[in-house]
Design a protein that fits this description.
With 292 residues, the chain is an alpha/beta fold. Strand 6, helix 8 and strand 7 form a beta-alpha-beta unit. Helix 8 packs across helix 9.
């Protein structure tokens, strides 16, 4: 169980004359403090025009795993081969996780032509890059489910990250992801004044884990999109709550249930206003092993 950002952070509260490195360090420190990993540069890369150099400059400033973020060919209007070259340069630089953002995937829809073009582009982008590099396809900003999972995951992606707040129908994609691939649930709202309690996030993580027999090891939690439009303190609170939710979701059942609103656990607890252990039942007759 892990947590990560699906989008940039606002400018941290550093002096006006702060160096790019100081801004970057504040973004990295916030994520690391609350247990997020892989980390990102928060949109404050030191070399924005050079993805490999930018990733290296970020990775050199932390001991945590750092992912690179690229805009995909469908959204950027670039040839897939061009984006692939960026991916290859990142891999050569030592990057182990590349996240390809395709917010315009929401425009693919049911058109056979659009589906074919999207799928072909991502096959070109991802083919034969090897297992050492984890590739994530990230879709934020709306629903892309009309394109179908065969189109969305036509490329050799190890995981799919989807916005489940502005694109709730993306659940259709999330639960259709094959067992051997991961799902990253963008379930923490990037909007101001949202309810960021852990209950919804824990439910999302466990629902994704239960689909296709995936298990929690192939599930992550994330923001639904960019936090850049929020004040720093509000964004920092969301990052903290994201990290807390991931820890709760990955905890043993008794610890997990104790950390949640009792009404989110079961009907009996909701009525009592507290968490009550579920009764055990005997399996295999009297004297057999008890199960919960």
């Amino acid at each position: 169980m892990f947590a990560t950002l699906l989008g940039p952070l606002p400018r941290p509260p550093v002096p006006d004359g702060a160096s790019p490195e100081e801004i970057l360090d504040a973004c990295l420190d916030l994520q690391a403090e609350h247990g997020l990993e892989p980390l990102t540069d928060g949109g404050w890369s030191i070399h924005p025009a050079a993805p490999a150099a930018s990733w290296r400059a970020t990775a050199d400033r932390t001991d945590h795993l750092v992912k690179a973020v690229l805009v995909g060919p469908w959204t950027a209007g670039r040839e897939a081969a061009e984006v692939r070259r960026d991916v290859e340069e990142l891999a050569d630089a030592g990057c182990r996780w590349v996240e390809v953002h395709e917010p315009d995937a929401v425009s693919v829809g049911v058109s056979p032509e659009a589906r074919a073009r999207f799928a072909d582009a991502h096959r070109v982008l991802t083919r034969e890059l090897g297992d050492a590099l984890h590739l994530t396809l990230a879709i934020t900003g709306g629903n892309a489910d009309a394109a179908g999972i065969e189109t969305i995951l036509a490329g050799a992606y190890a995981s799919l990250a989807v916005d489940l707040i502005d694109g709730p129908d993306n659940w259709r994609l999330a639960v259709a992801v094959p067992e051997q691939r991961g799902v990253i649930c963008g379930a923490l709202s990037a909007h101001a004044d949202s309810d960021d309690g852990p209950e919804l996030l824990v439910w999302a993580a466990r629902y994704a884990a239960g689909s296709q027999g995936r298990g929690m090891a192939r599930v992550g939690l994330a923001t639904s999109g960019s936090l850049a439009g929020l004040p720093w303190d509000d964004a920092a609170t969301k990052v903290r709550r994201l990290g807390e939710a991931a820890r709760i979701a990955g905890a043993p059942p008794d610890q997990r249930d104790a950390a949640l609103d009792p009404r989110a656990v079961d009907i009996r607890s909701a009525a009592l206003g507290r968490v009550e252990p579920r009764p055990t039942r005997q399996r295999g007759g009297p004297g057999g092993p008890a199960t919960r």
